[in-house]
Design brief:
InterPro entries: UDP_GlcNAc_Epimerase_2_dom, WecB-like. It comes from Rhodocytophaga aerolata. It is built from 19 helices and 13 strands. By secondary structure, it is of the alpha/beta class. Helix 4 packs across helix 5, helix 5 runs parallel beside helix 6 and helix 12 packs parallel to helix 18. The chain starts with a strand and ends with a helix. The structure holds uridine-diphosphate-N-acetylglucosamine (UD1) and uridine-5'-diphosphate. Uridine-diphosphate-N-acetylglucosamine (UD1) binds next to helix 1, helix 6 and helix 13.
């Protein structure tokens, strides 16, 4: 059977790094990869293919989109053409980004069986674009690959059948496990002249946090507090960078001597930064999971999470922008009284293997 996997963004790419390797174990499977071009900058896309030595995508779309709707339309038209010529038996979509939704709709309209990697996650917050993408995608998915127990429960509550649902674990962790040696060999601490556990690591890119001036000012308030206590490394997502420029807030960051601002980091450098940080502060989805696997304290500045096991089992704490609570949690980390945590079941580096076992029996 011909399988076409669709990726479009940084986290999508990081979730499929073992697909080629695992698919090659099955003579009955032909696997191809399509990149929608949603993320296009070198440091948001190409860097992962080169440093993780991934096979280049078989199909790459060139989209020229200035609005979300034109982004979706462009991606759908590009995938439609590829599906017409390649004729896959099954499509796999990843995560919850616009490329996921666009590809899922094309699969549905063109009668292609659809599998969704990382399905069933719910923040129950419909103001997040990703939540809508997740709900619509899952409503037309045939095969659900799930990372954590909450996903199984959510899908069951949405009347999906047990035989469609596969709790396989987390393919993002597969990448961490597979590249562990390379991650540990990254020279990033040396390059930034940092010692292990002497700094915190920040990322921010959720529209709800960075798209308004008020949101950015709240982030700057948190940065000002944190950098009084510790050095802070902040690789800036292009969305956030553009918004900081738009609201003319650069000078509020550039004067801060304890703040290390940088472009988006490559995967190996970023993982090395996580591994050696005292704690991470973020609004990312995937980083909540990676810190849980590493058992590094993570403060998530959001009102909710679609990945609740990172809080109930893992090292994650949800705090939103309550500065007093952030201060109290940071003090717990400094005084070694932060909560104890564990790694969720099946986050063992073998999720992709389980996925292809399932696919080989379809
Ligand atoms: C997207 C996903 C989000 C995910 C994030 C991962 C949607 C709705 N959102 O958000 O769920 O957490 O990716 O990083 O799909 N840009 C560049 N270069 C790039 C990519 C983006 O400069 O390679 C800039 C562009 O100005 C673009 C803006 O960032 O307009 C936003 O990019 P977009 O892909 O629409 O959303 P993200 O914020 O990256
Ligand atoms: N990441 C990276 N470099 C960075 C920031 C993040 O390689 O500068 C990785 C991170 O380790 C994780 C993925 O990108 O594997 C998460 O992507 P992002 O936070 O953009 O998206 P989300 O998970 O929120 O959808």
């Amino acid at each position: 059977q011909k399988i076409l996997t669709v990726v479009g963004t940084r986290p999508n790419i990081i979730k499929i790094t073992r697909f080629t390797h695992e698919s090659q174990k099955y003579l009955s499977i032909e696997h191809s990869l399509l990149h929608t071009g949603q993320h296009y900058s070198q440091n948001m896309s190409d860097v992962f293919f080169s440093e993780l030595q991934l096979k280049q995508p078989d199909f790459v779309l060139k989209i020229n989109a200035s609005t979300v709707v034109s982004q979706l339309v462009n991606i759908m038209q590009g995938i439609e053409q590829t599906v017409q010529s390649y004729k896959p038996d099954l499509m796999i979509v990843v995560g919850d980004v616009n490329s996921t939704l666009a590809a899922a709709l094309v699969a549905n309209k063109m009668n292609i069986r659809l599998a969704h990697l990382e399905s069933g996650l719910r923040s129950f917050d419909r103001s997040m674009p990703e939540e809508i993408n997740r709900i619509i995608t899952d409503s037309i998915t045939d095969i659900f690959f799930v990372t954590e127990q909450s996903g199984v429960e959510n899908l069951t509550n949405e009347n999906k059948l047990p035989e469609q649902i596969f709790l396989v674990g987390n393919t993002m962790i597969d990448t961490l496990v597979a590249y562990d040696e390379h991650i540990k060999a990254s020279p990033i601490l040396h390059n930034l002249q940092l010692k292990p556990a002497s700094y915190a690591l920040m990322t921010m890119h959720r529209p709800g946090n960075v798209d308004t001036k008020e949101g950015l000012l709240k982030i700057i308030e948190v940065i000002d507090y944190l950098t009084q206590r510790i050095r802070l490394v902040f690789p800036i997502h292009p969305r956030t960078f553009n918004k900081i420029k738009e609201f003319d807030l650069q000078n509020k960051l550039s004067a801060n001597k304890n703040l290390i601002l940088m472009d988006p980091a490559g995967y190996l450098d970023f993982q090395n930064l996580i591994l050696h940080s005292l704690f991470v502060i973020t609004d990312s989805g995937g980083i909540q999971e990676e810190t849980t696997f590493r058992q590094i304290p993570c403060i998530t500045l959001r009102p909710n999470t679609e990945r609740p096991c990172t809080v109930s089992i893992g090292s994650n704490t949800l705090l939103n922008f309550d500065l007093d609570k952030i201060k109290a949690t940071v003090e717990q980390i400094f005084s070694n009284t932060y909560k104890t945590c564990a790694i969720p079941p099946l986050w063992d580096g073998k999720a992709t293997e389980r996925i292809f076992e399932v696919l080989s029996k379809l």
